[in-house]
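User: Can you help me understand a structure? I only have the sequence.
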Amino acid sequence: MRIRGRVSPGITDEACTATRMSGVRARFDVGQLVCHRLFHYRGVIVDVDASFQGTEQWYRRVARSRPPKDRPWYRVLVHDAEHETYVAERNLEPDTSGEPIRHPQLTGVFADFSDGRYLPRQKAN
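Assistant: Let's start by predicting it. Here is the structure, written out as C-alpha cells:
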C-alpha cells in the first residue's frame, strides 16, 4: 500500500506505517477485489492514497459526484479491460464473488490469487 505515486510491485512496511500515521484508515487493501457502486464494474486494488492526489481539473471534470478529497482514493485494475481507474472510497464496496479478474497488468503487480484476493509480488532487495 502506498500513499501516492505509481503502482508498486509490492506492499512495504514503510508504506503501511505512513498510511496509519496519516490518521486516515483505508477500508480496502492492495490485492482486494472490489465493485464500483455506481458503474458496477469489478476490479482489484493496486494502490491506495490516503487522500485525493489528482489535479483539480481532473476532479472537476471526472469526479462529478464530488466525493471527499480527504478520504482514501484507490487505483483499480478493471476486470476485462486494459485500463485502470482512480476511485474514491465511498464509491467502492467489497466484491464477495471470490472470482479472479482478467487484466493485462495483473502479473506485473501480483504473484498469485488465493482465497479471493491477489497476493502482491515481493519487492526485491
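Now, to help you interpret it: The CA atoms of residues 111 and 121 lie 5 Å apart. The helical segments are 13-21, 56-62, 106-109. Let me know which part you'd like to focus on.
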